[in-house]
Specification:
The chain is mostly helical. About 85% of the residues lie in helices and about 0% in strands. About 25% of the residues are buried.
Length: about 90
């Protein structure tokens, strides 16, 4: 049960990052979603987009904490730290 809850949290973190990225493109871009994604890839701004999308992980984290599901919140935190670490390494090298 313990590992299952952490995996649910990790999957939730990944899904909320994707949803957050799509929402950011939808609300703050002048173009449609497909054109916006092409522009992001063209200008190598994918890391910035995913980082902005990861802000939605805060909502998932606090939701799980509010519902006393600490292991799921831990999973969301794990994926957020992994994303930050990967983009930090990519930025440095």
């Amino acid at each position: 049960m313990k590992n299952k809850d952490i995996i649910i949290g990790i999957v939730t973190g990944i899904i909320t990052t994707i949803i957050g990225s799509i929402l950011y493109l939808t609300f703050f871009s002048k173009f449609d979603l497909v054109t916006s994604i092409k522009q992001v890839m063209r200008f190598n701004s994918f890391n910035k987009l995913v980082n902005l999308g990861a802000l939605l992980n805060l909502a998932a984290f606090y939701f799980f904490l509010h519902k006393d599901q600490e292991l799921r919140a831990k999973g969301v935190l794990i994926i957020t730290i992994i994303l930050a670490f990967v983009f930090l390494i990519q930025k440095l090298f």
